[in-house]
Structures are given as C-alpha cells and as structure tokens.
Amino acid sequence: MTRTAELPAPPVAEQRPFSFERHGRTVQDPWHWLRDESYPTVDDEDVLSYLRAENAYFEAAMAPHRPLVDTLFQEMRGRIPEDDSSVPVRDGDWLYWWAFQPGAQYRTWYRRPASSPEQAGEPQLIFDEPAEAQGKQYFVLGALEISPDGRYAAIMVDDDGSERFQLRIRELATGRDIETVTEVGIGDPVWTADSRGIVFTEVNENWRSYRARFHRIGAPLESDRTLYEETENVAFTVSVEKTQDRRFILIGTGENVSNEIRLLPADNPEAEPVLIARRRPNILYSVDASHDRLWVLTNDNHVNFRLAEASPENPGEWREVIAGSDAVYLRGITAFRDHLVISERLNGLDQIRLRGYDGSERRIPFTEASYTASLGSNPEYAPAAYRLSYASMVTPPTVYDYHPADNRLETRKVQQIPSGYDPSQYVTERITVPTRDGRQLPVSIVYRRGFERNGQGRLFLYAYGAYGYATPPGFSTNRFSLIDRGYAFAIAHIRGGDDLGYQWYLDGKLDRRTNTFNDFVDAARGLIAENYTGVGRIAIQGGSAGGELMGAVVNSDPELWGAVVADVPFVDVVNTMLDESLPLTPGEWNEWGNPVTDPAAFEYMLSYSPYDNVRAQAYPPMLITGGLNDPRVTYWEPAKWAARLRATKTDDNLLLLKINMGAGHGGQSGRWTRLREVAEAYAFVLTQMGADTAQ
Asked: Active-site residue 612, yes or no?
C-alpha cells in the first residue's frame, strides 16, 4: 500500500483570495483561479503547471503498483476477444457489421450484399477507424449513417474530446470523402428519402445544440438552410431523428423535463416543419410513425407515461391507446410494420412488449430473476425478426433475434470470454434495503460462490442516480478482477435514476436531491446490516453526476468507505449552476434548481455541493479523474475539489488527481487505453483496501 509518507510532497495549489455574494451570502472560493479565463482554450501556465504536477504525483504514487496495473490489464484484456465483431444487421440491400482486428484499439466497419451473403466475396470496407485514428491522441466515431440508396455515408468524428464533431460525406464505392459539411456537428444526422440531402444539428460557441440544418449533397455550404433554430429557451437543445417507417424526419427541441417535436416529410425536407404539440413545463413526449398514424408516448396525465395515437394531419389531437399505470413504466416505443414494440419496466425489471395493430399483446419471456433487456439495432421497418440485447450480472451480453411468428428467441451471439468463464461459479442476488425515509431500495449484487457473509467481506459499490438514467443489472468482464479477489460487486438503484419508475427519478432531483446521497449511504448500511461487508470495507465509484454522489457521501459518511474513485465528478455545483455561460448550465436548472434567481435553490445547493462542504476531517483514499477538453464537467471542478481536499483533510490517506490532457468526458478513447484506466482504478482500490484472495 502506498502511503503519502513514501512519496514526494503532493502538489499544493495556492490559495488566492476570491469571493462572491449571492442572495445575501458570501462564498469564499480561493481556488477559483484554476478556471482558465480563456476557456475553452487552456493556456494559463499556472493552471497547466498545477495540473502537470498532479499528474506527475499520480504517476509517482502508482509507479510501485504498475506490475499490478499490468496484471489487471492483462486479465481484463484476456476476457475480451481480440477479433470481436457484431452480428450483421440488414438495412435494405446490405448487411452491415463492425469488427475489431486482433490488437486494434478501434472498430472497422463492413458491409456485404444481403442477397446470398455467403457467396458475395470479400466484404466491402466502409470505414476504417484504426486508419482514421492513426497518429491521434483521441478519436471517437460519433455516427455512421448510410443513405437509403446505400451510396453514401454520413460520418461524425471527434478527435480531441470536445464533442464538436466533423460531419463528412463519404462515397462508399470509392471510399472518398466528397465534402465536409460542418466542423461543429453533434448527434446523429438523418438522410432525406432521396439520399441527396442530410439533416444535422450544430453546436454554438457554448456547446449548445441550437439548430437543425439541411445540406444538399454537392451544393455550396453557404446555401445550407436552417430548418429550425431554438431561440425561445437557451436551455433547450435541438436534435433530429427519423421515424421507423422512414416517412418523417423529427426535429426535437427540449431539456430534461420538457420538449416539443416538429414533423418534416423525409421526401420534402424544405417543407415547413409541422409542430406536433407545443412545449409545456414538465411534460415530455416522443413520437414514432407507422400505418399513417403517429404514436405518442407522453407523461401529460400520468407520471409513468401513456401511449396515444394521432393523425399526421392533426398531430396535436391525441387519442389514448394505453393508459398510464402505477405498476408499469412505459419507457419507449418503436413502430414497426407488424407491431408496436414497447420498452417498459415492471417492478424495476426491463420488459419488451409486442402490441399488434389489432390490439393483441404479448411480452417476450425472460427467465432470470434479475437482468436487463432492450431492443437492439433494427433499422428496417418490416424485419422478419426483432433484434434484442440481453444480459444479467452473471450472463454475458447476448444478442437475440425474436421471431414473433413462433414466439421464439434465437441466440445470435453470446459475448465470448477467451480466458474462460464458468457462470456456475458466481451468484447474483437482488435484495431490498430500507431507506431512512421508509422506502425500499433495490440493490443488485454479484459475487463468487463461497463469498462469506460474515461482515468482513470487501465490497465494491457503484451508483449514478441522476437524469432518470437507471443503472441496469448488466454484465461486465472487468468486475471479475475484483470478484475473483474476494470482493462482492453491488449496484445501488438509488433515486435520481428511473429504476423504479419516473417518480423514482423525480424524487432524486431539485429540492429532493439529497435523497440520492442518502439512498447510497443507506444501501451501504443495509449491506453492512446483511453482513455482506463492514464499515471501511466498501470501495465506491461514480462518474459525472455519480461523481457528485461520491463527493457528497465522502463528506457525510467518510468512515464507511475504504477507497473512492470519482471520475469527471460534478462537484462544484454552486459555481457551475450560477455560470450561465457554461454549455450545460441553463439546461440543467430543471435538474438541480436555478440558484441565479431562486434563493432557496441556492441555499439548498450550498448545503450539499461537495466542493463547498469539504471540512476538516479524515477522508478515505481517493482517486479523482478529469479531462482537459471535457465540455460537460469542466476540468477545474475535479482540480478545485482536489486542491481543497488537500488543504483541509486531516488524514494522510492517499489523494490522487489525474487529468487527461488530451481527452474529454469519457476519458481515453481506444478500447485498450480505456481498459488500462479501469485497471488503474482497480489497482488503486486493491492497494488501498487489499484483497481476500490473490490471483
């Protein structure tokens, strides 16, 4: 175990007097200077010197443990097929798939004719990510959308982590890029019906997706037309998609809890978009189309959503098809020719329901007590079978084709684990623990058979808890590097996510945000009470809003945790939510509250903001990460938090800050470099907490 006494002195970020006043309160922020005033350019040498010093300290602390990092990395890599590939999916006249070549960091994308694919000769290479990423520190393929006639691909690429994507049009027959449409694209572009035009969205200088544009292939860029620009609400962002029947392009604008959608004929992209329903506070809706009807999923009269239909001629007149339910949480619809496929959740578990247009219904059967299931890639309107994805904490990710004609699941792929995996050696459970306000909180757990519930076990606890994003009880090969060393791995399905319905999300936001933090602590205490683990024997991890969670619970209950990993943590809540110039801030006020105008929201945020509530006490060992180019959680949040922790905490436990100097919110981009970062995090946990069994 590395102790700070064995290392050079950690970096010290000097304190420079700075304060601000809001709503009668003065807030001191002596590390305010770590925000470079020229951001998004970061060229302040004082800032850069401090970040480099923290990275050097991280390397020094981890240097003795590099053999362990290497061992963990090799274990994790050994569980991943070097030459993994996806199951081909049909779209029109072609079958499309991706594959990793042995050793490659990135995917290569192919297609072959759907007719007689086995006799079609060599597959056609349509995009070579390894070649495109050559020589780049960071590379992400954001979208690869094929035109309806199969001639072109619209390609979105980010090569610095800023999430400002270059949109290029590639001619597939020649492999040549024929034009670059924008340098500031985002999201998935949509082709027009004639394959001669593309509808896409762009971000402005504040990284807000503010408009949808139409480009005609071969036309001058200056002739591109703006189809919709959001001018009414700076918090709203613009997106585009296409209905499953490919008849309409949908132009959406909205935020976390309110939106509106416009219809645009895919065969007439220069027509005036038709508004379906005007935005209303706290009302969401989504739309698909089939059989000359619009299918609308909305929470306008029930918190768990209802399904309605409308005609394209009168899109705002909704007629109820499935009423909202306290028990069944409707989450999404896809309107195929033969069925409406409804994604829903019952008792916190995923369900997939097929509804015929005659009103007949069935659910696809899944047998495990705890699992996650979802609709996979299904680009066609009338597929012979529906592609599904399935996993549990002990069942590797599985691709199924569901054949509705005979109610049959066909296994198309089970994730292979080259180094070997015996599911009979592992146990998964789903338990409930009480919260301090009387709710029942689900916790999903996996451990190796023989794990003793004697109160002495080591446990790794994960959660997110924001934006209504559930954390499903899925599968991860990486976890076994901890589980095989004696750890149990648990996911706390805390409020702020929508694991138990939309109200579960609402109960973890705004003036109920601290429910999320309390739930996590109560999950830990519940696991202790059930003898899975003991005080100080729990490692915890969360990222982004889950990093805020980490910051809150180390302030409130530091003695519970044996090690903490906080990735790109949203910890400077008050400062960020006061700064309207930051990309996400206005759109986040419906999630966190608006401290600019609301004194109560300001006081509430100040009461839990991790950065503002660091105090003189002992903290557990902590690893904090960030990205210099991150547009979501800016680099200075983890940097300021680490600086305040160093200056305030009373212990000598290890505190590390690692800032990726050439990456953004998701960390490194290649599959192996990303995996090495996971290995570093697990090595940190193991060196700080130890292991019950050696590998």
From this structure: no
Nearest to 29 by CA among 606, 634, 487: 606
Q: Provide, rounded to the nearest whole percent, the portion of the chain with pLDDT above 70.
A: 97
Q: Check if the beta carbon of residue 397 is closer than 8 Å to that of residue 389.
A: yes
Give the separation between CA 348 and CA 329, rounded to whole angstroms.
Answer: 9
Please list, in sequence order, all residues whose beta carbon lies within 8 angstroms of the beta carbon of residue 577, skipping any fewer than 6 positions away: 585, 588, 589, 592, 593, 594, 595, 596, 605
Q: Could you state, in order of their start, the residue ranges of all structural domains in the chain?
A: 4-9+17-78+420-689
Neighbours of 476 (CB within 10 A): 17
Cβ within 8 Å of residue 257, ≥6 positions away: 281, 282, 284, 590
Predicted local confidence at residue 695, as pLDDT: 46
User: Which of 370, 544, 609, 669 is flagged as catalytic?
Assistant: 544
Residue 501's pLDDT is what? 96
The set of residues, in sequence order, having a beta carbon less than 8 Å from that of 270 and lying 6+ positions away, is: 214, 225
Residue-wise pLDDT for 419-443, tens only, equals 999 999 999 999 999 999 999 999 9
Tell me if the domain spanning 4-9+17-78+420-689 has CATH number 3.40.50.1820.
yes
Q: Which residues contact 113 (CB under 8 A, 6 or more apart)?
A: 93, 94, 95, 120
For residue 336, give the nearest of 244, 249, 405, 250 by alpha carbon. Answer: 244
Are 22 and 597 contacting, i.e. CB atoms less than 8 angstroms apart? no
C-alpha 667/C-alpha 137 separation (Å) is: 11
Higher pLDDT pick, 122 / 393 = 393
Q: Which residues contact 199 (CB under 8 A, 6 or more apart)?
A: 189, 190, 191, 192, 212, 213, 214, 227, 240, 249, 251, 264, 269
* Greatest Cα-to-Cα distance within the chain, rounded to the nearest angstrom: 76
Instruction: Return d(Cα 264, Cα 233) in angstroms, integer.
Output: 22
Torsion sign, CA atoms 546, 547, 550, 552: negative
Annotated catalytic, 403?
A: no
pLDDT in tens, 513-532: 999 999 999 999 999 999 99
Instruction: Give the Cα separation of 432 and 688 in Å (integer).
Output: 29
Pairing of strands 622-627, 655-660: parallel
Q: Is 339 a catalytic residue?
A: no
Average pLDDT over residues 174-190: 96
Choosing from 91, 507, 522, 630, the catalytic residue is 630
CA distances from 143 to 11, 140, 147, 621 (A): 40, 9, 13, 39
Backbone angles phi, psi at 20, to 5 degrees: -145, 160
Tokens of 685: 């946990």
- Of 443, 626, 582, 645, nearest to 525 by C-alpha is 443
Nearest Cα to Cα of residue 319 among 296, 341, 290: 296
Residue 246, token pair as written in the block: 């490919």
The whole-number pLDDT of residue 134 equals: 92
Asked if 375 contacts 350 with a C-beta cutoff of 8 angstroms, the reply is: no
Q: Which of 444, 498, 665, 669 is catalytic?
A: 665
CA–CA dist 359, 463 (Å, integer): 38
Nearest Cα neighbor of 608 from 623, 625, 593 is: 593
